[in-house]
Amino acid sequence: MLPIAQLVGPVPPPLPQQTADCDRPTYATDMLVCGDPTLRALDQRLLSRLTSGVPGATGASSSLIEAQEEWFKRSRRCAFERDQRDCVEAAYEERLAVLTAPSTSAIEAGTCRLGDKGHARLLVDGERLIIWRDGAVIAVAFRMRDEWHTFMTYQRTNTSVTIRDLKGRAMAHCRTARPSRAR
């Protein structure tokens, strides 16, 4: 008897996606998103943002912001997490926060050194820290979360902030003008 793979032939990879495909869900995470009203609403908000035509809406403005395709692939790995739903919800919340940064409530909090790429402004915007230069978002960082590993995280003291990538590498060092309100 032949193995099934030989009977049906090679299985092609899934088509590229940026959000869940509820018409033809390929990933376990898509099935979860499509069956959960809260996650589906987050997915629709993300799709709306991505197709809005707003500059920076896809997050491709900086190497310190994860490309949409990479975020999508990484978010689908939530299927392997203990609490898949919490992981997916946190992933969508992070992505929407990155793509809508900064809000009108953001306050200037200091300056950042970006290695050999010069300096930029540090903004505090609720729970996220934003590195901003020449009218563009350079990076958005969040506190470490248990259910989802954000693309950029921050560690802070009273007078400084270090922005780290997924691998824990320091990507920016910031000095705060006054103690940061982000907790």
TrEMBL record:
Q: What is this protein called?
A: Lysozyme inhibitor LprI N-terminal domain-containing protein
PANTHER family annotated for this entry?
Answer: LIPOPROTEIN LPRI (PTHR37549:SF1)
Q: Which InterPro entries match?
A: Lysozyme_Inhibitor_LprI
